[in-house]
Design brief:
375 residues; 10 helices; alpha+beta; 2 domains; rod-shaped
Length: 375
């Protein structure tokens, strides 16, 4: 029988020997530190498959997991391929024997041990082996060492290999605990993020509803004043001119009196549709209340005549499609960013201009004072 292969650190030393054992245990301490930092099973197996060979100077090492009544050869580090990725019944392999009997199996010559399935080993380099269970109480796997020539591993080598298996068991249990904690944290984080998203969606919905006219889907008075004044201030800072259009439905009260409020509501929805066709998505369109609408549009290319032509075309299109008779009085005011007029003053000016047009359309009746304008 030949002497033992090189031991820890590549030093030639037959086992057992006191110096070898001390160095092996020192190396095992380093392995324990590496395992303490492992956060998943693949990393544990990578550490252990290298350490199992280095600690004993073996020609091969394997990492076996117990998997539903079978031995799963999950990892290996050897001079030639062994059984990585294969599964065998617990009763049919030596790793299963070590797990079932909860103690190491030492085989100096595989061809003389009845526990060895010879045909499975014949194509390999293996002639001697030592197999230890990972955890002696309810084993969850096994670690094996293989030698290419007849060799009886020493008691010290088996003891070191079993110590490696014991710390491996602890590391696997720690990884399971860590994984469970990580999963719980992820689940809690996901639940918290979902709750935050639900709250944001609810807040966004409440905000939209607080800024939206229920009948037409346009901005309500609050929404229009908030968004349009912001656009107005932005235009003043960037030098972009804007336009305020104030529109009022003609004869809505008469329609409500003669045909009912449902007819009046259809007319208001038609006006909203015409305004959307006339203006862009970036423009702010609002229903201020009743039959009053306001728009804040930006752009140098716009002018009152162009706005009126586009609006008239949109009204004609909606009237034709919906069978309505929309008629609007409008006032258009240019917002010059170089002037110091306030948004409120310009909106009032557009309202006055609208009422001037509405009054001009009337064939009779004295003007009525309204917000400093006549109608």
């Amino acid at each position: 029988m030949s002497s033992a292969p090189s031991g820890v650190g590549g030093m030639q030393a037959p086992a057992p020997q006191a110096g070898w054992y001390v160095r092996a245990m020192e190396h095992l301490v380093d392995v324990v530190q590496e395992l303490s930092l492992a956060r998943d099973l693949p990393r544990i197996m990578e550490i252990v498959r290298h350490a199992a060979r280095e600690l004993t100077g073996a020609d091969g090492a394997t990492f076996v997991l117990r998997d539903n009544g079978k031995c799963y050869y999950a990892e290996e580090n050897a001079i030639a391929p062994l059984w990585k990725g294969h599964r065998f019944p617990l009763e049919a392999c030596i790793s299963g024997w070590a797990m079932l009997n909860r103690r190491p199996a030492v085989v100096p010559d595989i061809y003389k041990d009845p526990r060895i399935p010879i045909e499975a080993y014949r194509p390999t380099f293996v002639r001697s082996l030592a197999m230890v269970p990972i955890r002696t109480v309810d084993p969850i796997g096994a670690i094996g060492n293989y030698w290419a020539e007849i060799r009886e591993p020493s008691a010290e080598q088996v003891k070191v290999l079993q110590a490696l298996a014991d710390v491996t068991a602890v590391s696997m249990e720690n990884v399971e605990v860590f994984s469970n904690l990580e999963r719980l944290v992820k689940e809690r984080t996901a639940a918290l993020e979902a709750e935050i998203m639900r709250r944001r969606q609810a807040e966004d919905l409440a905000r939209r509803q607080s800024l939206t006219d229920e009948l037409t889907g346009l901005h309500n008075r609050r929404g229009f004043l908030l968004l349009a004044s912001n656009q107005f201030e932005l235009g003043r800072r960037t030098g972009m001119p804007g336009w305020i259009v104030f529109a009022d439905a003609d004869r809505l009260k008469a329609l409500n009196d003669t045909s009912g409020h449902d007819a009046g509501d259809r007319l208001l929805k038609g006006i909203a549709q015409a305004l959307r066709l006339t203006f862009r998505e970036v423009d702010v369109i609002g229903r201020l209340g009743g039959d009053e609408f306001a728009i804040y549009a930006t752009g140098e290319a716009l002018d009152p005549d162009a706005i009126r032509r586009r609006l008239a075309a949109a009204i004609a299109e909606v009237n034709g499609k919906e069978g309505l008779n929309i008629s609007l009085s409008i006032g258009v005011i240019r917002c010059n960013p170089e002037k110091s007029q306030s948004f409120e003053a310009l909106l009032q000016a557009a309202d006055n201009a609208m009422y001037a047009e509405k009054y001009a359309k009337r064939s009779a009746g004295p003007p009525v004072e309204r917000n400093g304008a006549t109608s």
